[in-house]
Amino acid sequence: MCPRFWTATSTGWSIRCGRPSGTGNWRALPTTAPPDTLAELRRTVISRLRLAGVDTPVLDANVLFGHVLGIAPEQVALRANAQLGPEDLRAIEAVTQRRERREPVAYITGRKAFRRLEIAVNRDVLIPRPESELLVEVGLELWDASPGAALVEIGTGSGAMALALADERPDRCVVATDCSYRALQVAGSNARRLQLADRAEFRLGDGSADVSLEGAAVLANLPYIPTAVLDTLEPEVSRWEPRLALDGGPDGLAVIRRVVAQVGRGRARAAAFEIGVGQSEAVAALLRAAGFVRTAVFRDLAGHPRVVSGTRVS
Questions:
Q1: pTM, full prediction
Q2: Is the CATH code 3.90.700 the one for domain 4-101?
Q3: Degrees, nearest 5: CA angle 292-297-302
């Protein structure tokens, strides 16, 4: 017998029979009796997300319910007996179907927490990852070691890292670049909403975008996934996130190699790059070849090499 799930329709309620196919192909069994409570509907949504292959169905259901109802995700389970109106039911159905198609939760809600900030995101930018917070921490250390130095972020995307740096060092300013005009629109909007526009400047251009790097500390989270690996990644990444921000060429280092050389020619004082699996030694070698004699590798919370930094010796 196929799995059966309640779903909202334009004419009432139906039971869907089958598994999500990504195209919404189900066998509908009409009925007029909707789920009675939030708890019942939440259980149904969790089951549907699990069948769709979602790794974190309970967490995602709570976030989606909270997004629709305007409450914190941790409060969703506490409202088990709440009765939902037709508009809320239809909205929950809409976000559930989007997640069944493996659209990332952050694109559905339009928000992603990063450091102390809530960053707005859409499909023009990568979703900020917790692992990238390590690059912010390394950047703060490099910046603090040279109080008068500029800080430049290359490849800012949503602006998450540049804005986190500006937020945590309110007496200093960050310059950030990106080659995508649409990404910079997102970054600029985030800066204005977070009231950080006076401390974060965004510029359009490839690499450093003609920003002076002399004596600066440079951070970069550039594309580092090998082209052949992209289509093997989870659907949330391979189907939905911008390839321009992911594709690092045949070995994953094409963009990093070019930017390291540019940063070296610009006489930056220090630089730090986020990296992928097995790339730490190669990136450290690139930094040394560019004049950053002192290099270090930093591991993320899972123990994986995640950031490589290089510093010039005075």
A1: 0.87
A2: no
A3: 160
